[in-house]
């Protein structure tokens, strides 16, 4: 087996979507593009396709993943979205949950979860994940951000800021202002319900989803770093064009009615997609962790 260079392991948890993947790449490609396009660091990436019902193929991929772990070649993990349910009992998912709980989350590596990735991390940490009573949350959606994420030591969320001109008692100056709202693409009807896992805080909320992401925090005993795990219910990796095509895909598949589709399409076409800002957060998160390792 030829070993790859040190890399971010992108765990691809969905299969190709006809008419979408050919045009935009799979969810792993979208995640890699987000990180590359919003950062200044030069990470290597390796995709691991873990959503397959082929036992031989699945075993081969896990052999490659375990080899990379044992040879200390993985610098961090990114878990993609998926059309699967985080609470299903599909064989590939049962195996993945076991590996996630007993191996990946026990490694001292940064872990990012996007949409399904967020839900499955919450699930193995003891949260209930189920269908939302409010149905689909789709298209670009405005999220209310939890101010507590900015108060964490070495918080990567300070990337969520913009420079504004301030006039204070005749003194005119530029200052960085932190966002209290953010627009991200959403594409889910399952949500994390109830309380957060121990040592996590909520990223933000919307009217349809009260837990829009999770951030791990230092538990006070020095054994856990702030922000070693960061998840988002939204899809910062989805461009507006991809989001619009996914809405059409869902509408054509009968998953959205015409009213839901037209409303989501309007919001997606008119609201500013700020996924690139979350890309900067993810870059700072991964970059800080990598340098912490180098300095240790």
Automatic annotation (TrEMBL):
InterPro entries xref list:
ChyE-like (IPR044992), Class_I_gatase-like (IPR029062), GATASE (IPR017926)
Family matches, as Gene3D superfamilies: 3.40.50.880
Q: Which PROSITE patterns match?
A: GATASE_TYPE_1 (PS51273)
Q: Does the keyword Aminoacyl-tRNA synthetase apply?
A: no
Kindly state which keywords UniProt assigns to this record, in alphabetical order.
Answer: Glutamine amidotransferase
SUPFAM superfamilies on file: Class I glutamine amidotransferase-like (SSF52317)
Pfam families named in the record: GATase
Q: Which GO terms describe its cellular component?
A: cytosol; nucleus
| Domain Glutamine amidotransferase residues, every copy | 100-240
Q: What domain of life does the UniProt record list for this protein's source?
A: Eukaryota
Q: What is this protein called?
A: Glutamine amidotransferase class-I family protein
Organism, per UniProt?
Candida parapsilosis
């Amino acid at each position: 087996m030829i070993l790859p260079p040190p890399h971010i392991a992108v765990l691809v948890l969905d299969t190709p979507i006809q008419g979408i993947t050919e045009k935009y790449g799979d969810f792993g490609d979208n995640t890699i593009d987000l990180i590359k396009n919003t950062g200044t660091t030069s990470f290597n990436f390796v995709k691991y396709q873990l959503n397959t019902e082929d036992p031989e193929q699945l075993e081969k991929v896990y052999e490659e993943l375990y080899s990379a772990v044992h040879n200390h070649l993985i610098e961090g993990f990114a878990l993609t979205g998926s059309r699967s349910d985080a609470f299903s009992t599909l064989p590939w998912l049962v195996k993945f949950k076991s590996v996630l709980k007993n191996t990946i989350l026990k490694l001292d590596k940064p872990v990012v979860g996007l949409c399904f990735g967020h839900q499955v991390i919450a699930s193995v940490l003891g949260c209930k994940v189920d269908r939302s009573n409010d149905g689909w949350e789709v298209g670009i959606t405005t999220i209310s951000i939890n101010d507590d994420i900015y108060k964490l030591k070495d918080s990567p969320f300070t990337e969520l800021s913009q420079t504004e001109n301030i006039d204070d008692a005749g003194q005119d100056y530029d200052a960085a202002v932190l966002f209290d709202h953010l627009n991200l693409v959403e594409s889910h009807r399952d949500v994390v319900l109830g309380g957060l896992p121990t040592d996590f805080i909520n990223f933000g909320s919307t009217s349809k989803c009260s837990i829009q992401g999770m951030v791990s925090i230092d538990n006070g005993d020095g054994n856990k770093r702030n922000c070693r795990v960061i998840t988002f219910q939204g899809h910062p990796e989805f461009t507006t064009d991809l989001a619009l095509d996914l809405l059409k895909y869902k509408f054509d598949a009968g998953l959205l009615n015409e009213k839901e589709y037209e409303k989501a399409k309007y919001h997606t076409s008119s609201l500013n997609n700020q996924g690139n800002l979350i890309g900067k957060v993810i870059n700072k998160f991964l970059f800080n962790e990598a340098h912490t390792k180098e300095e240790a």
